[in-house]
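Weekly sync, protein design subgroup
Attendees: M.S., D.O., the rotation student, P.L. (late)

Item 1: inverse folding check
M.S. brought a backbone from last month's batch and wanted to see whether the design step gives back something sensible before we order anything. D.O. pointed out we never logged the input encoding, so this time it goes straight into the notes. Structure tokens as presented (244 positions):
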């Protein structure tokens, strides 16, 4: 049985929000063979992004597509052919239940409906801007090194929106990663498919997860990002081809 993502409808379709890693849910019929406490860690989900996406959707009156399954079950922000689509290890932790997993049924059950929902939202009302929300750890457990950025903007070939966002955030005193903490030229599957392939400007936003680990932090960053997204949307609107 397929599992649909959560869809938030919005009155203003000029921005489409996506949260590929918003959930740490593991369906009861899938056994990852890991301790339950690992599901609270970053390896299972992007901490804070579920609440952040909901608040941004409310503030921007924007539609959103929110994942309902952990990336340890299947990573919705990977191409179906990617070696890490169903991870057998993450940040030094083995995921034994995935070693002999049957991957095609997971693709059909979770990956296909998630991206079909994004496709449908894009086709119904072509957005001016697509914004994907992610979070990153202050330091990886397997490779400890401080990540100093508060927020990062990732991009592949199309950096139109990212450049505007980086400038806006930097002018306001934020420590901003330019294609950091990792490069969108290596991992940009969702935006490659739904934004770059259709010449839609986009933002892939990474917020350091200790900054959005509680309600106060989520509210604070939702305010910052709502203003930033609004600014970028207004700047890129003349760049985006009209809906057909």
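Designed sequence read out in the meeting:
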């Amino acid at each position: 049985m397929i599992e649909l993502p959560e869809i938030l409808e919005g009155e203003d379709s000029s921005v489409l929000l996506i949260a590929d890693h918003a959930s740490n849910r593991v369906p009861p019929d899938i056994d990852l063979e890991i301790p339950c406490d690992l599901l609270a860690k970053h390896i299972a989900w992007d901490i804070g992004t579920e609440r952040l996406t909901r608040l941004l959707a409310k503030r921007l009156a924007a539609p959103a597509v929110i994942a309902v399954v952990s990336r340890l079950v299947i990573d919705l922000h990977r191409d179906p052919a990617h070696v890490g689509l169903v991870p057998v290890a993450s940040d030094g932790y083995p995921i034994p239940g995935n070693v002999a997993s049957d991957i095609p049924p997971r693709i059909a059950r979770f990956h296909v409906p998630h991206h079909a929902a994004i496709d449908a939202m894009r086709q119904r009302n072509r957005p001016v801007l697509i914004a994907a929300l992610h979070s990153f750890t202050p330091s990886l457990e397997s490779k400890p090194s401080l990540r100093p950025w508060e927020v990062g903007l990732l991009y592949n070939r199309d950096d139109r929106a990212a450049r505007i966002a980086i400038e806006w955030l930097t002018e306001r005193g934020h420590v901003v990663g330019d294609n950091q903490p990792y490069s969108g030229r290596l991992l940009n599957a969702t935006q490659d498919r739904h934004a770059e392939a259709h010449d839609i400007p986009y933002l892939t936003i990474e917020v350091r997860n200790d900054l959005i680990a509680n309600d106060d932090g989520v509210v604070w960053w939702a305010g910052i990002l709502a203003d930033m997204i609004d600014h970028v949307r207004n700047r890129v609107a003349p760049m985006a081809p009209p809906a057909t």
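Discussion: The beta strands are 6-8, 15-19, 64-66, 89-90, 93-94, 129-136, 151-154, 176-178, 202-208. The longest strand covers residues 129-136.
Action: P.L. to compare against the previous round before Friday.
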